[in-house]
Amino acid sequence: MQISQGTKLIKNRFFILILTQLILYISALYLIYCKLIIVATIFFTILFILGLFTIISFQKTIKKLQEENELIKKEKHDIEVKLEGQILDVTASNNELKILNLELIKAKNKVEELSHYRGTFISNMSHELKTPLNAIIGFTHVLLESEFIISEDEKINLIKTVHNAGKKLLNIINNILDLSDLKQDIDIYEPVPRYIDITPIIDALVSTAKGLLKDKSSILLNTKIGENYPNVYADDKALGKVLTHIIDNASKYTKKGEILIYTEEDEDHLYICISDTGVGMTDSELERIFEPFTKMIINGQPISISGSVGIGMPISKYLMEKMSGNLLVQSKKDYGTTVKIALKKEPKDG
Questions:
Q1: Are 345 and 270 in contact (CB under 8 A)?
Q2: Are residues 199 and 55 in the same domain?
Q3: Edge-to-edge, what's the strand order for the sheet holding 219-224?
Q4: Structural domain includes residue 105
């Protein structure tokens, strides 16, 4: 717009100056014709000066227009650069939104899957609870009612049945209570790690293993435990909970063979290792071992509530991370599982 106005201005000025010079030139010729030479000379002088002024004015106007043109080009360039920057920002924001949207979809799917597992578990709970309760009520009724005439051996068998049903019911209730452990451990109990002596905790682990395996003659317990260990960064209560869960799993899922408790060290960490020759896990099971309730569904079917509900490993993982440690699991289906609890060692100069 500015250039168009400048061009129009030049045309107007140039037209006026040319018209003026033309009039002066004609007037000078007429004066010469009238033999008024002096006056004609004055007119030609004015005509010359006016011509110089026209040229100078034209050059100045052209220069000004060029400067304005350069300024417009610079402003246009700045606007284009700014616009490109805004486009890049918008593109980056759009990409971030796409990534966040994908993560949100994954999280939503994960929550829906977990909700499905919970629902399946709870719907299966009623049947699982009723079975041992009905057995207890029914058989105790037989024992209490005088019209039922039963022998001493039958009475003992009924009492054993009631006892076993009670144990099964207790196991079910314990697993139901475990459902609150994940929230309880996260929201209520927070580990308070410090550098502690690990020896008593390892001794307690071995004692627990012996107690779990005392009635399982088909499983051999082996230990490779040292005498002197460096202090490790841990909370004794939280670490005890983790180790108890791991050794309980090893005992529960090993029918025969060996459970080995041993330790390893590197420059920065002490590893407490529990290895078994149990059922092991497939690669897909191993990938999901730290997801709550993953063991509630097997081949699309709900498992028994009287078994493990599959929240111990997520809890253990959480507790280890709170103690700046880690939980490492290696497993092979039908060959067994090895769990390594990694604990940070106290610096030698500390």
A1: yes
A2: no
A3: 219-224, 257-265, 269-276, 336-344, 326-332
A4: no
Q: Indicate whether 179 belongs to any domain.
A: no
Runs of H (alpha helix) within 181-332: 181-187, 199-213, 236-252, 283-287, 312-322
Token output for 187: 């929201």
Same domain, 199 and 318: yes
- Structural domain count of the chain: 2
CA dist list (Å): 132 to 128, 129, 296: 8, 6, 20
Residue in 254, 261, 247 with CA at minimum distance from that of residue 277: 254
Q: Mark whether 60 and 201 lie in a shared domain.
A: no
The C-alpha atoms of residue 161 and residue 165 are separated, in whole angstroms, by: 6
User: What's the CA gap between 104 and 111, in Å, rounded?
Assistant: 10
Q: Where among 55, 88, 121 does a domain terminate?
A: 88
Whether 262 is in a domain gets the answer: yes
- Closest of 10, 81, 83, 13 to residue 2, by C-alpha: 10
Q: Does residue 259 sit within a domain? A: yes
Per-residue pLDDT of the chain (350 residues; tens, 9 = 90+): 444 555 555 556 666 667 776 776 777 677 777 777 777 777 777 767 777 777 777 777 778 878 888 888 888 888 988 888 889 888 888 889 999 999 999 888 877 876 776 666 666 666 677 778 888 888 887 778 766 677 788 888 888 888 888 877 776 776 666 555 545 544 446 789 999 999 999 999 999 999 989 888 899 999 998 888 999 999 999 999 899 989 988 998 899 999 999 999 999 999 999 999 999 988 888 888 877 655 544 344 444 444 454 567 888 888 899 999 999 999 999 899 999 999 999 998 75
83 and 196 housed in the same domain: no
Pair of tokens at residue 206: 């071995």
The reply to whether 219 and 336 lie within a common domain is yes
DSSP 267: S
> By residue range, what is the domain housing residue 323?
192-344
Last residue of a domain, one of 33, 60, 88: 88
User: Which helix (H) or strand (E) segment is 225 a member of?
Assistant: none
